[in-house]
Amino acid sequence: MITIRDLRKVYGSFVALDTFNEEINAGEIFGVIGQSGAGKSTLIRCINRLETPTSGRVIVAGQDITALSGSDLRRARQQMGMIFQHFNLLSSRTAAENIAMPLEVMGYSRLRIKARVAELLSLVELEGKGDSYPAQLSGGQKQRVGIARALAADPKVLLSDEATSALDPQTTQSILSLLKKLNQQIGLTILLITHDMGVVKRICDRVAILEQGKVIERGRVVDLAAQPHSRLAQDFFPRLTGYQPRPDALLVTVAFRGEVANEPFMATLAQRFNVGANILNGAIETIGGQPVGQFQIELAGPERYLALDYLTQLNLAVEVQDGRTAAEQFVDSNP
């Protein structure tokens, strides 16, 4: 649905976005995460051409957006709805009138606009709120109006620029649930810009992590979460810091997903090997509909390297404190 090739945006000597490449599939929820100044908003504004890229190409639904101008660009933008952090509603218009704005610009008849607005109010679960003004709506309701307005022209892509960052946690969850419902019910492709790992964990299929305009990590959320060394996993599962294992012990991070989460591998370690296995830190989260977890374990005793090899044979992702894999540790300890 979206193809981005070698996209760069430079302001004077400042590189806001540096050679971004990605393909976003139809019906996918793709997250771009990073801190302020990472280049996230620049990316999304280049995609809908609110900003003109310095170089590179953006192709949306088969059209090269970077090659268009004038009326051609305006028509192409109808394929892309956008929702914002601060809603951007007109205070002098009711919810229904805000939703109707894109349809008025496109020249729809009054009867057609009325029918489409009613359909959209129902879609975003705001029946009965069409005559309310923004000042009469909660933050979550305002964002639902913003989502309905973005969907008015039946776009193929929804661009979300920090759309939940001004909302409280409970309202954020309701908006994310709505976006997931829209993705599933109407096959909407969503590009979601955020600084919140919780948003990525909740609804994204894949993610790219931006830092100073560059992608430092990308992949399926569930895959990255199940790798101890990944930046995403370390944000999902904060590690114990400053702990020094005993001289006869190893500090090991074990990551697991799916059915392996139900395996009693910790109990088996104690039964099969002459080791003490002490869980120092850990958690299990549901990501992409399946359990994903990480434990930090201190393995102490003469057979600690055999225990490491056993964990590896279970297809667990295992990382020792110094960064070597379990297999490397086992080889080094058995020359």
TrEMBL record:
Stored InterPro entries: AAA+_ATPase, ABC_transporter-like_ATP-bd, ABC_transporter-like_CS, ACT-like_dom_sf, MetN_ABC, MetN_ABC_transporter-like, NIL_domain, P-loop_NTPase
Cross-referenced Gene3D superfamilies: 3.30.70.260, P-loop containing nucleotide triphosphate hydrolases
Database matches in CDD domains: ABC_MetN_methionine_transporter
Any one Pfam family match given in the protein's UniProt record, by short name: NIL
PROSITE patterns: ABC_TRANSPORTER_1 (PS00211), ABC_TRANSPORTER_2 (PS50893)
Residue span(s) of domain ABC transporter: 2-237
Source species, domain of life: Bacteria
Keywords per UniProt: Amino-acid transport, ATP-binding, Cell membrane, Membrane, Nucleotide-binding, Phosphonate transport, Translocase, Transport
Molecular function (Gene Ontology), one example: ATP binding
Keyword ATP-binding listed: yes
Keyword Transport: yes
Protein known as: ATP-binding cassette domain-containing protein
Organism of provenance: Leptolyngbya subtilissima DQ-A4
Lineage: Bacteria, Bacillati, Cyanobacteriota, Cyanophyceae, Leptolyngbyales
